[in-house]
Here is the input.
Amino acid sequence: MSTPTRHDEDEHELDYDLADLDAPLSYDPTLPLTPTGNLRRRMVVNRIAEGGATFAAFAAMVVLAIVTYAVVQRGGSIISWDFITEPPPLFGGAGGGIAPALIGTMLIVGIATVIATPIAILVALYLTEYAGGRLGAVMRLALDMLNSLPSIVVGVFVFGLLVTGHHQSGFAASVALAIIMLPLIARSTQEMLLLVPPAMREAADALGVARWRSILSVILPSALGGILTGVVLAVARAAGETAPLLLLDSIYNPARVSWNPFDAIPNIPVTIFTASEAADPQGYKVAWGAAFILLTFILLTNIAAKALLARSRKKLS
Here is the structure.
């Protein structure tokens, strides 16, 4: 009895492969596509999800329109040049304006912007140009958590850090607002830096330019419009924050213009809060007028941010 050779095994495997080729295919790619039984269910679910999203967007627009209409209707009648440029009466009553609160808000938000912007840009540069792996993921998570942190928690933290044992001040309020602004600016800057074409980085590397110099002369100027957009949006949010200011900068003389950030400074959010809680009916008018000015400022800053963002995207594309 002879044993099978290698040649016999190869012929057996070839016969097996040819038999597989002659077998009928379980799926014919030339046949037309036919809907399955789940198609109707998927279409219904898709329409429900699309309708829910459309309804939510429409509801948000309706709420914004109602709030804007109420503020314009009740606050527009009190707006005048004297209301913007004059201080309020010392002992209450009709007349006067909110000039000290306007100046104080601009000072507080300006200091917060100066503190937050360079730190946020450096954080974004590190995340996009240097960080990688787990460290970068941890830092991004920390930014997201800081962005979702309630503003009252930030106010309590800064109160224990700068106010306890001292006194309320505009600088303490600026530090709290800077903490709120930092993740917004860092995230928007990071997104804009990622939009810079990789070819620009590669060209700088091919020319032998140092990494720090290519960042300063190539990458940052290309994303400047987007960075300014993030800064403007952060300023718009910080200008309307009330909770930290109630803890850090709410005991002041509302009729005096203060330029010293280490003293308590009048500001618009606290002015709206205190005027709306006053027993004097004139206080409601002042609160609505201040709300109208604050809403107008936020609207203009958002329009400016959208214009800067569109210009930056057009430049990068």
